[in-house]
Amino acid sequence: MLDFAAVPQGLLLPGLAESFDLPRTLDCGQAFRWRRRENGGWEGAAGGRYLRLERRGADILLQAGAADLPFWRSYFDLDRDYPALWALFRRNPVLRQALGCCPGIRVLRQEPWETLCTFILSANNNVPRIKGIVERLCRGWGEAIPGCGFFAFPPPERLAPLSPGDLAPLRAGWRGEYLLDAARRVAEGRLDLGEVAGLPTPEARLRLREVKGVGAKVADCVLLFGFGRVECIPMDVWMKRVMAECYPKGLPRYLRPYGGIAQQVLFDYARGGHLPC
Fold it and tell me: How far apart are CA 32 and CA 127, in angstroms?
């Protein structure tokens, strides 16, 4: 169980900075509602909550109350022993090289509905543009989170009655139609995300792919980042290249249960202009 200390500014997570690199985790393309503050810290919203967090030496400060700790504990995957996991990864020479350059990446455990929508919007898109679309979506149809200027992610019931024309201000293009299909399926009960959470991964993947615009990569992103299925490996252009050149026979068997976390390390390294083999 992760220890924390209550301080006047919020919650201090002692010694966590070594295993929690804020920019690599929050700005690597797995979540789209975090932004850097002028003081070097970060702020963002998730689950209808606003959070500021920053590094304080070897510690991480969460500007949140103790009542919100269970939510952020799950969101930031704080109970997973990442140092032990990286020790396992370092048995593999490719991942050892990648970790030497890209330490401290955590895989977030986000709300499934928001994750489904944001990765529908991510198709053939770049991170700054996705962030802009998501921000406009939340400002247009989400509830204001008091005192911070952020808005909660809109529930499916708010989006389901809309038309593609209503979503024109998002500048999401053809992705708007797919977003509405997802909203209508969830609002009408044709896609029960709670049920998906209990399905075996292959069946969960098939259920998600019933939504327009959700192919193999988006489905695996939703399963990894929204449902905590850390065995799922989303295959974008970077990861296809890494797998083809470094793992033509697939990841070693001992890494496969954590393939999604390994993927995030390899993706960050490859995206930075390196190929670890």
Answer: 7
DSSP string, 249-277: T-S-GGGGGGHHHHHHHHHHHHHTT----
Q: Amino acid identity of 64?
A: A
pLDDT tens across 78-103, in order?
999 999 999 999 999 999 999 988 88
The pTM of this model reads: 0.94
Decide if 255 contacts 262 (C-beta within 8 A): yes
The rounded distance, in Å, linking the Cα atoms of 212 and 170 is 18
Q: What is the CA radius of gyration of the chain?
A: 19
What is the C-alpha to C-alpha distance for residues 235 and 218, in angstroms, rounded to an integer?
9
- From its phi and psi, is residue 148 left (phi > 0), alpha (psi between -120 and 50) or beta? alpha
Question: Helices marked H in 91-215 — which ranges?
Answer: 93-101, 112-121, 127-141, 156-159, 175-187, 193-197, 201-208
Residue 159's pLDDT is what? 98
CA-to-CA dists, residue 13 to 22, 28, 106, 220, angstroms: 13, 22, 15, 30
Using 50, 70 and 90 to split pLDDT, how confident is the model at 4? confident
Nearest to 132 by CA among 171, 161, 179: 171
Q: Which residues pair with 42 in a beta bridge?
A: 36, 53
- Name residues whose C-beta falls within 8 Å of residue 70's C-beta, 6 or more positions apart in sequence: none
Q: Which among 72, 77, 16 has a CA at the least distance from the CA of 48?
A: 72
